[in-house]
Amino acid sequence: MSPESRAETQHETALHARLHRLEQDNARLLEEQWTHLQETRALTGIGRLLSERLDPDVVGERIAESLRSLLGARSAVVYRLDADSGNLLAMAVSHGPTAPTAGWRPVREAGPGAVGLAMRERRTITSPDVLTDARIEIPPPLRAHIEEGVDRAVLAVPLLTQDRLIGVLAVRNATGTVFDARAVQLAEALADQAALTLEHARLFAEEARRRREAEVLADLARTVGAAPELATVLRRVTEAAQELCGSDGAVIGLRVPESDAVLLHYWTESPGDALVNVRIEPAKGLGGHVLMDRRPRRTIQAQMAVPVLIDGRVEGLLYVDNRSPRAFTDQHESVLVRLAAHAAIAIRNAQILEAEQLARGTAERLVRALRESQDRFQFVARATNDAVWDWDLVSDALWWNEGVSTLFGYTPEQVGPDVAWWYETIHPDDRERVKSDIHAAIQRGAESWSAEYRYRRADGSYAHVFDRGYVLHDGDARPTRMIGAMMDITQRRQLEDELRQAQKMEATTCSRSSPAAATSSSADSRPTTRCGAAWR
Question: Across residues 114-140, what is the average pLDDT?
Fold first, then answer.
C-alpha cells in the first residue's frame, strides 16, 4: 500500500472513530436529557400537588412512587412523625415489580436504624448495608426484621418544614448498592418539595376534619335533644366514633345494674356472636383498666377506649379499634371523649325519663289517695261545728273550713290566705304566748299542740277558744303540715265564771249564818263549800 493510500485509510479510520464517539456522546446526552426531564417532571409533579386539595395519604402515595422511580430503587416509604406518640407512621409504601412486599414497618420507633439517624442528625444518610454500618444503631428486634429481607442498602432523608421535623423519606435497594451524590441531590430536592406538599395537605385535611367533626357533633346533639330511644342515640354515637376516628369499628357498652362491670351493647359492624354478652370486668384488659382509673387508654397500634362518665361514675365504655396496625392519636382521643359525653347525656336523659315515669305513676297513685283523703277530710270538716284549719308549714298558707264563718262571723273574703291573718286575730295579750308555744312544739318535733286563748270575732268581740293541732312530717322527719280544730268555749267559760261567782256568794252566806260550815269535794273535783243543813 502506498503511503498515500495508507494515510487515506488512517484518516477514514480516525473519522469513523470520531463519528462513533460523537454518536456515543449524543446518546449519553440524550439519556442525560431524558433523565433530567424525568427528574424535572417528578419534582414538578410533586410541586403541582401544592395547588390540589388532596388527602395526605394520597399525597404520600404519589411522593413514595415518585421517589422510588426517580432513584430507581426497589422500594420507598414516606414516614410521618406522630407528635403524640413520637413514633413514625408509614403514610405510603411503593414497591417495584421485583421488590419484596415485606420490609417497611407500618409503625416504628423514631430512634434506631438509618431512618432514626437521619432524623437525629437532620441530614441525608446513605448506607450500602445498614447491618454492617457502624454509624447505625440496630437493636435486636430491628436486626431480626432486616435480616429477613435482601434489600439492605438504604437512603434516608428527613422532611423539614420551617426547621420543624415532620417525617422522613427512605428508599431501599439491593445490598451493596451505593447511592451517589446525584441520587442524594435528587432525594433532597424531592424531600424539600414533599415537605411543603405534605404540610399543605395536612392543613387542608385538618380544616376538613374540623368542619366534618363540627357537623357530626352538631347532628348528634340534635339527635340527643330530640329525645329518641336510647338505643338510637348510642348507635349514632358508635357510627360517629368510627367516622371521626377513621377506625374499622366502634362499640359501646353500658354498666350492669348493681355492678361495676360493663356489658357491650351496640356496635357498628356485624361481628356475629363475637360481641354478644361480652362483659368487661374491672382491671381486666384495656376496658377493665379504664373502668378502674376512669380515664382514656389506648394501645400502641389498634385500640382505644374512653369512659362514659356521669357524676364521676363510669356508666359505660366507648371503644374504637382497627384490624390493621394503625395508631390512634390525641386528636382521636379528644373526639372520642366528646362523643362519650354525648352518650352520657343520652344515658342520663334515659335515666331521668325512667325516673319521671316511675315518679309519675307513683304521683298519680298518691294523687288519687290524697284526693280520697281530702274528700274524707272535707266531709269531716263540714260535719263538725269546730273551725278546722290546715297550715302548710313550708309556704305558711293557711286554709279554714266553714266553721270560721259560722262560729266567728267572717266572710270568705275577710279570711286571710296565710298564718299571719290568724296571728292578727289572737288577743294581743295572748298572741306572743300562743305563737311561742306552737313554734316551740313544731321545732322540738312534737306530734301535737293545744292552747286556750281569746280569738277576735268579725264584730270585734273576743271568743274564748280551745285550739288543738297535729304536726305532720315528711320522710326526712321534717315538719311540713299542721292540721287542727278550734272550739268555741265561750259559753263554757261563762258558765264556769257564773258558777264560781255563785259558789263565792254561797260561801259568804254560809259563813254568816253558821260558823260550822262544812267543806267537801264535788263529783267534778271542783271545791264546794256547803252549810251543814245542806247535807240533810
Answer: 91
